[in-house]
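Please fill in the sequence for the structure shown.

STRUCTURE ENCODING:
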């Protein structure tokens, strides 16, 4: 017989234990991280200024901050080229590429939901 969940004791809060969904949302949440990931998923590697142009409205400082955080979380790889003039390129890691099909499904769900409004 299945045990019914009737009170808070039987159903722990998602905040009590580190819920994997909330952990994921902490990593990719915010205003700019998903647009950055989404754009980087469209190609191989991109220079900072191209990324800034494509993620409309983001400031240099916020883009740099988000890229550092995404790099620290293992979702973005940063490659610095020691040429003249020097430049840096960013691309998604294998871990982030696993996230892309999920984001595509979420995009489709959002598009369908938007049409119902």
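FILLED IN BY: designer on duty
SEQUENCE:
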């Amino acid at each position: 017989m299945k045990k019914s969940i009737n009170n808070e004791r039987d159903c722990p809060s998602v905040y009590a234990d580190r819920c994997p969904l909330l952990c994921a949302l902490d990593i990719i949440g915010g205003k700019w991280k998903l647009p950055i990931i989404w754009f980087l998923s469209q190609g191989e590697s991109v220079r900072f200024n191209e990324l800034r142009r494509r993620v409309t409205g983001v400031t240099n400082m916020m883009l740099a901050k988000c890229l550092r955080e995404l790099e620290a979380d293992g979702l973005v790889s940063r490659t610095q080229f020691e040429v003249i003039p020097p430049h840096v390129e960013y691309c998604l890691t294998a871990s982030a590429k696993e996230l892309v099909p999920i984001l595509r499904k979420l995009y489709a769900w959002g598009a369908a939901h938007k049409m119902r409004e």
